[in-house]
C-alpha cells in the first residue's frame, strides 16, 4: 500500500451528483477516489475488513433471497412494510463506527485478523480514524472535509455501515423476538419487515 500511495499524484477527492428516486432529495453527492492516494488507502482497509464475516441476522446481499423466502410455505396472514434509513452513510457516527470495528476484530480474533491483513489490530485501529481525517474534497477551488459520517463513494462506506448496522440489527431482532414478526430483511439501507396478523389484529381491521 505504501508504494502505491507514494506513486499516486492525486491528493484530494472529487465530487459529482447523481439522480435519486426521492422527491425531497433529487440529487445525491458522491465522491470519487479515482487517481488519489486515498483510493489505495481505503481499498487496503476494505480488503482487511472483508476477512471478517458480518454477524447480521437481517442482512441480505442479493434481493433474490427475499424472493426465495416469499415462495416458500409460510404462516397465513403475513403482511409486510418497508422502511428506509434516511441518509445512512452521512448519519454514521465515526466514533461508533470505530468502536464497532474494534469489537468485530475482537470477536474475529486479533491474531487471526493480523494473519489475514499482515497488520496488528492496534495498528489497523490507528489507520481507520486517520482515513476519516484524510477525506479532503476539492470542489470549485474550495477545500472540504467530511467531518462526520462516511463519504458516499468511499471503498469503505458499505462494509463500515454493515458492521455498525449489524450491531443494531442484533438488538432489533432480540427486541422483536416476543412479537409476531416473521422475518426482517435489510438490503443496504432498506428494511423489509414481515409480520403475521393475529386474530385480534384481524378483528380490529374488519
Main sheet characteristics: 3 strands, antiparallel
Secondary-structure-derived class: alpha+beta
Principal-axes shape call: globular
The proportion of residues forming helix, as a percent range, comes to: 40-55%
* Order of helical and strand elements: HEEHHEHHHHEEHEEH
Note the main attributes of this structure.
single chain; 206 residues; alpha+beta; 3-stranded antiparallel β-sheet; two-stranded antiparallel ribbon; 22% strand; globular
Short description:
By secondary structure, the protein is of the alpha+beta class. Helices cover 46% and strands 22% of the residues. It has 9 helices and 7 strands.
Structure overview:
A hairpin with a 2-residue loop joins β6 (181-187) and β7 (190-196). The protein has 9 helices and 7 strands; from the N terminus they run αββααβααααββαββα. Helix content is 46%, strand content 22%. The chain has 206 residues and is α+β, with helices and mostly antiparallel strands. The strands form 3 sheets. It has a 3-stranded antiparallel sheet with strand order 3-7-6, with no helix packed on it. It has a two-stranded antiparallel ribbon with strand order 1-2. This is Reverse transcriptase domain-containing protein. Residues 1-206 form the Reverse transcriptase domain. It comes from Haemaphysalis longicornis (Bush tick).
